[in-house]
Sequence to fold (604 residues):
Amino acid sequence: MQQQAQSGSKVSRPRSLRHARGTHYLALLFLVAAPSFVLADTRPNVVVILADDQGWGDLSVHGNTNLSTPQIDSLARDGVLFERFYVCPVCSPTRAEFLTGRYHPRGNVWNVSTGGERLDLDEKTIGDTFKSAGYATGAFGKWHNGTQYPYHPNARGFDEYYGFCSGHWGDYFDAPLEHNGKIVRSKGFLVDDLTDHAIEFIEAHRQQPFFCYLPLNTPHTPMQVPDRFYDKFKDADLKLRHDGPQPEDPSMTRAALAMCENIDWNVGRVLAKLNELKLADNTIVVYFSDNGPNSWRWNGGMKGRKGMTDEGGVRSPLLIRFPGRIPARSRVSLIASAIDLLPTLADLCGIKVVGDKPLDGLSLTPLWQTKPQAWPDRMIFSHWGGNVSVRTEQYRLDGAGKLFDMTTDPGQKMDLSKQRPEVAEQLSQAVADWRRDVLSEMQRVVHPFTVGYRQFPVTMLPARDGVAAGTIQRSAKAPNCSYFTNWTSLEDRITWDIDVATTGRYSVEIYYTCAAENVGSTVELSFGAGKVSGPVSVAHDPPLIGTEHDRYPRNGESLVKDFAPMKLGEITLEKGHGLLTLRALKIPGKEVMEVRGIVLTLAP
Fold:
């Protein structure tokens, strides 16, 4: 049935209808008029699981004996393992390439925070493609390609969204998240909770084709994981270690490996649910990561880690299982990339990619066939921070113009640019062409943050997207999960550069903390002629949280607090572009309050 549906062949009808004649004419007419009663939609389901900061070497299937990942490894046993699969050096660009099948500069994704992570609105996503084909679509986890509608996942083809849209989160236990635009709180450890919601989505849509995207948030920092996984590693003797000149911190490695084993357990839960629902044979399962490891640890001897365009910074696991369509224990040694996943999954499901922009990726389906079709001698480009590296089947030209034979030198120790000048010149020209034709599309412009769409009336404006002036400071250098503190002067301001789509009345909530001795300040929010003000009248002074769950010290990332919503009132916002400004009119204490963000809700 899978192959018939894939190829477009007719689905077999019941015997009584196949042989209907004469008196069965009415039954045939009924079949034509209402085929949904007889014909089942056998298009395959899709589950895509994306790890965050897990290196190629963080799986036992790749030879790492420091940990065991049997559930993830089973995808290679039952499907195909890509030996040389490439993503971007950091999170949001990889997500953009997966979503669009196009290199991330084309969608103007150039940063991981403060607006530079947003995917241009004229780009169509894999969610759009599967939703247009009639699939139920859901995403559960770290989005990292835009927070405000229409950058929000609910506007990018995903009917269901549960998770956080920022680049990282400050605490992974009972965390504040959002569900389709409403602020909620997770239960327990975040990866477990995200998996719970993905499983619920699968169960709810088991009678129709579904596309389930599960972008997990680990082993990204902060290094937090439940005891049952960490206890195995806290005193573990790590046999395999990073073999480069940079020092490895075993404590960081132990925490990362524990988090990877937690991911493996959750992958097993998804696979078990597919088996329980008898969906496994008609479900494509994809597993990959978004960049290289987030610390120096064993990674197959490759050079580089997260943030680098060298092999170790951009080579990722890729495992795909599709029983009956992908032969078990297949291995593909040809190079492939995150830009290939959209065309590959659309091809496997027999659906059309939506949008009018040409894809950079290719369908990988010929690569695991018994008799592979002709395959182009392609190049895959990696970019971050102005550095561009290019990979062919044999060579890598790094960001400094050095040439390496990756088949014999994965550590990139021997520069061959002088011995093979013709290859170095060819690849240097290819990089120059890519810079001209692709990288030039990245404008590095922070567009205003969008507010006020009728179809999605709630707009979150986190501190990450704001700009502070005066004495106000961020709680940490990394903006993604920060809040504003040290608000002590009437001259201080917090502003958000916004573009209001709809003129109307908006209710205002400020997520805040305030010590009892500082209660009594009056604050004002303004935009153009619209203003609303009110007192900070209720003390809310929760402690900092996060360190009690950390398995490894943080490096520049903010701890968090349990911020509470303060209703400020209603403000009239006129359609247009300008600065939304929060300031104090009166400060009786030492500080006004700490601010995690503002939520604006457009009145009906």
About this structure: Residues 1-39 have pLDDT under 50 and may be disordered.
